[in-house]
Amino acid sequence: MTTTKIFSVLIFTSFIFISCDKKLPQHVENEINQEKAEVFTKEVTYDHEGTSYKSFAAFPADSMESKPVIFIIPEWWGLNEYAKDRANQLAEMGYFTLALDFYGNGKVADNLEEAKKLSSPFYENPALAKKAFDAAKEKLSDFPNADKSKIVVIGYCFGGAHALNIARQDAELKGAVSFHGSLMTGVKPTHNSVPVLVLNGEADEFVPQEEIEAFKTEMDSAQIKYKFVNYPGAMHAFTNPAADEAAEKYGLKVAYNKEADLKSWEELKVFLTEVFE
Prior knowledge:
Number of helices: 9
Number of strands: 8
Shape: globular
Structural class: alpha/beta
Number of domains: 1
CATH topology: Rossmann fold
Order of helices and strands: HHEEEHEHHEHEEHEHH
Distance between the termini: 38 Å
CATH superfamily: Alpha/Beta hydrolase fold, catalytic domain
Helix content: 25-40%
Strand content: 15-25%
CATH class: Alpha Beta
């Protein structure tokens, strides 16, 4: 598959990424969060190459003890409430979490055309994702409770693709996790010690079997440690409670899947425990 074709597929796939400005249903929150701690949240501002960024930090409020760090790359809509809710959930588990403003100025798209316009440069030039990540990582020096030697990056949809992208460019990471993201990111994997967890919906028509096989071949060839989980019956955006509404509104083949959502979260928790040992 040519680079142009890959980017075309990625841009087309991006249209199924859905807006998540709603909080998770209470019953889902109750099942996901087994252990909660009081959380402190803070807007984290910084400048990079002439652009101001407004990311969102969430971390345990009861201790200044150094905590492992989790970066969250949002969907192509930008840093919305869904990404912040996930950051809060991880902070409740004891992690220092930073949900990233990738576009600058806290910009959040409210329609498909704007989301496409904002996200396209990152597909066309994957190095931009690494620059946005590095700018946020430098800001960790302001937080003595953030353990900069222990960083994992996770992402959803657009963010999942770029979590894989960054893992291929930053050998210092402890790991990377993709939730229903594209697998062919435009960056070829090279051997490093960054383990990868991919959580995919088996019924996701936007991640075809040939893409899965190509991904596995690339990872095996680069001798990268990874785990690929396919959830039976789960469609694209299976972790997103707003998926059903988006499917009805836009005629998209997406759907929330509670079972896959909960199971994938458990996979994430196990992965974090292992890589942060």
